[in-house]
Write a structure and sequence with these properties.
- The structure holds two protein chains of two kinds.
- Chain A is mainly α.
- Chain A is about 75% helix and about 0% strand.
- Chain A has helices spanning about 1-15, 20-25, 30-55, 65-95, 95-100, 100-125, 135-160.
- In chain A, helix 3 (about 30-55) runs antiparallel to helix 7 (about 135-160).
- Chain B contains seven helices and no strands.
- Chain B is elongated.
- At the A-B interface, helix 3, helix 4 and helix 7 of A face helix 1, helix 2, helix 3 and helix 7 of B.
């Protein structure tokens, strides 16, 4: 259970951080950070979508996947960084509550899986010589990527609607 | 929609997540218009490849947006931020029409060039600024609406 105590300690640290306090106690800071999160969602989702559509042979058919991926890569990495930073700030306003939120936990697991997948399997297939890959492989790799990222997005939408806490965490709530 | 527990969150989720398709592709297009992304690609090709999905995304945004509005039209209309958002949407539409009628018509002249004409850059900047504010306004509506 060391992981559990570590995570709870981390959540408490976030909750008590100056940015956690600052955003929580301001009327306009939370929506302001949320808007950055939302704008970066559009850009990140757009870059992931276009590369996967290309991988499935649905868009930009007459050029290599790797070239399109390289073109949009800075935008993907930039928007991912904005997503992670703004997400961390939003999380810090109610970190301990989020620890007990099943939708938030699901979102973090999907995020971890999506990021690892994107920078390993997905990247390898995108950068590979396409003539050596079966079309079915490309389609499956693209669909897994879309499913993982959709999971992250749905988790993000769901966490605002969740009102109950998982397990005994509710006793920790302020 | 008011009577269902699930309808509103589902429609709202579709509305928000379609931003990836709509806003994401609009940003990519604007970046090409500015000459900062996909530079080696012909402008007409980028437009041709992105537009069908961009318009598809836009259609989903409109349909889900109208549904959300219809759940409580008076509450929406009573907020200033909703009216501002609608005006900005019209401006964004006008921006596309003006682009198509001017620089867009002469696309053959600058199709291959990585540097784009001033008119194209202007259209891209206007588009980006408008969408940033439209999305901000959209988020703001949720805070401006009276609590259910």
């Amino acid at each position: 259970m060391w992981l559990r105590s570590l995570l709870i300690a981390f959540c408490e640290w976030c909750n008590n951080s100056f940015w956690g306090h600052g955003i929580r106690n301001s009327t306009w800071l939370f929506p302001f950070v949320e808007i950055f999160h939302l704008l970066a969602l559009g850009v990140l989702g757009g870059t992931i979508l276009i590369v996967n559509l290309r991988l499935m042979g649905l868009r930009f058919k007459n050029e290599p996947v790797s070239e399109l991926a390289r073109d949009v890569r800075p935008w993907m990495l930039g928007s991912l960084a904005v997503m992670l930073l703004s997400g961390f700030l939003l999380f810090s306003t109610e970190a301990v509550k989020m620890y007990g939120n099943w939708a938030f936990r699901g979102k973090m697991l999907f995020l971890l899986a999506a990021v690892i997948y994107t920078f390993t399997v997905h990247r390898k297939v995108v950068m590979a010589d396409q003539s050596r890959l079966a079309p079915a492989v490309r389609v499956v790799v693209a669909i897994i990527s879309l499913l993982l990222w959709t999971g992250v997005g749905l988790g993000g939408r769901a966490l605002g609607y969740v009102t109950t806490s998982v397990g005994s965490v509710s006793s920790l709530l302020p | 929609m008011r009577e269902s527990l699930w309808a509103e969150p589902i429609v709202e989720t579709i509305h928000v997540l379609t931003l990836t398709l709509f806003l994401g592709f609009a940003v990519l297009l604007d970046m090409r218009l500015l000459g900062v992304a996909m530079k080696r690609r012909r402008m007409s090709e980028v437009l041709g490849q992105l537009n069908p999905w961009l318009f598809g995304g836009f259609a989903v945004m409109i349909v889900t947006g109208v549904l959300l509005f219809c759940a409580d039209p008076i509450a929406f209309y009573s907020t200033t931020v909703f009216k501002v958002k609608m005006i900005m949407l019209v401006l964004a539409g006008l921006n596309v029409l003006i682009f198509n009628a001017t620089v867009g018509r002469k696309i053959a002249e600058w199709d291959l060039s990585p540097t784009t004409p001033g008119g194209a850059k202007l259209a891209a900047v206007v588009s980006l600024v408008l969408w940033v504010f439209i999305i901000s306004a959209g988020r703001w509506i949720a805070y401006a609406l009276p609590p259910p």
